[in-house]
Amino acid sequence: ETGVTQTPRHLVMGMTNKKSLKCEQHLGHNAMYWYKQSAKKPLELMFVYNFKEQTENNSVPSRFSPECPNSSHLFLHLHTLQPEDSALYLCASSPRGGLADPWDEQFFGPGTRLTVL
Amino acid sequence: QKEVEQDPGPLSVPEGAIVSLNCTYSNSAFQYFMWYRQYSRKGPELLMYTYSSGNKEDGRFTAQVDKSSKYISLFIRDSQPSDSATYLCAMRAAGGTSYGKLTFGQGTILTVHP
Is the pLDDT confidence value at A99 over 90? Predict the structure, then answer.
């Protein structure tokens, strides 16, 4: 596997379910990100992790809970979601986290298409 | 007012046409400007990255930044059906608490038909 992978690619869940999204990067990067991409809206940054530490929480509701056990893996735990949370959830990674290097390039995974019924 | 405005299209052009994609922005702190390309069922990939005002060319692609007008453009020459994708502009401030954050436009859907 190369680059940034995400599983599952598609997920349908009810509002009372608990599920998790997984992201893995094989690039040796030190920063990882979760974004939400909704139809007709710009990509919204949700969380940023630098060297496994959360450095950004963009006012995300607590029904989304991130976890970063190491620099290569990132999870997004989901519980009691709402239909408006249906979207494409993208994971990205970058070598240095952007905070110290404005040229820090983010590499995106293919996303998980989430549908909340 | 949104920080970054991008016409969502869709834009449909014949093969070989010159395509112009544009974004305007309101935050004068933005110094770094990017264009991403996103194919259907894929994540965005970085296409062009520029700093401040001026032009940058890479093959058939030219990125243009006009900071005085807060306006950026991506030109695609000799467009090909393989250029059909959604194009996202993104911007980053220099310094401050939002140093590392990217702010994206809504994306423009482009179709190049044979």
Answer: no
CA atoms within 13 A on the CB side of A86: 10
Residue A61 has pLDDT above 70, yes or no: yes
What is the mean pLDDT of the segment spanning B47-53? 89
**Which chain A residue shows the shortest CA-CA distance from B39?**
A110
The top-level CATH class assigned to B4-113 is: mainly beta
The residue of A88, A96, A108, A113 whose CB has the most chain B CBs within 10 angstroms, and thus the best one to mutate to test that interface, is A108
B42 with A110: Cβ contact below 8 A: yes
Give strand pairing partners of A115: A12
Q: Which range is least confidently modeled, A103-117, B41-55, B98-112? A: B98-112
Q: Given an 8 Å threshold on Cβ–Cβ distance, is A105 in contact with B46?
A: yes
Domain ranges of chain B: 4-113
By the CB < 8 Å criterion, does A102 face chain B? yes
Q: Where are the beta strands (DSSP E) in chain B?
A: 4-6, 11-14, 19-25, 30-38, 45-51, 54-58, 61-66, 71-76, 85-93, 102-104, 108-113
